[in-house]
Amino acid sequence: MQKKNPGLHPELVTAKSKIEFRTGTESSELVVLTDDPAIYGDGKRKVIHLSNKQGRRLGKIFQFQKAENIYQELLWQLKLEPGRKKEQGQKGQGLKKEVYVVFSPDAAGATELSVLLSQYMAQRGRCLYLQLSGFPVYSGEKLNEAAGDVPRGMGELLFMLEQEGFADRVDELIRRFGKADMLPPLAHYKDLLDCRPQEWEHFLHRLKDECGYDNIIVEMGQIYEYFLDLMEQADKVLFLQAEGVIGRAQRMVFQRYCQTEHKDDLPARTKYIMQPEDFALAGAEWENIDLEELADHGQKMECVRRILEGGEKGVDYIMEDFG
What is the DSSP letter of 297? Predict the structure, then answer.
């Protein structure tokens, strides 16, 4: 009640018979949030079940989480969340929808920066996080140690690129990721290798134009046949460069690859970010991070802002206080 959304008028009903009575007497739209699996929706009411299964699905909310997270999930289910994003969007009205690619030649730090960037951009509009690395670690809000059991996500959508129900299926498959959304990664690395440039282009286009995402964060951490073609779909590329001669050499190799493949405009859209030596230590506490709290961490969000806004393109950026 303290955080009540203007479009939400909550009422506590503790008996099933009273729910049936309220349904019969209410003329406006009625939604029932319940842990009783025997209660179903009909023409007079919509039912959202509290479930013991994690994941973001229409009509289901994972019940074993913070009350604040359940509340935010309820707003998402009822399509009331844009009220919060409308305020955020006022600062960024007129900005074009953008795709960010985060890439590291050694795959070091790409996940951490991608996650931080997704939370930063989610405060400025609707943001989606995609993992296109060979070793994805997220299938939801929490790090996934049991990575062998990957839920349906991008892999299924890539087979629906020409179907009309693409956007509806995205709504069913996306999962909450702090203040952003995410799609579970591909189940097998060969699925990543099998996708051609035109398929990635179509995939990202539909996510932006039909699903309403203002920003898409793409994490990449490996070299494969079409990696430069996928990077070309990005408005901005953040290249994580190791310190010292190794980092400088990898940067020159990347620029040579772009020249050889006739992608001369790609380096102009790339920012090279220097990694401090202790950057990897951030992962030691990563499993305990609450993504909602991460988005509200002023120091980390300020670091992301400096990366995005500071300096000129093609100049090194130092990520300070990142751990």
Answer: -
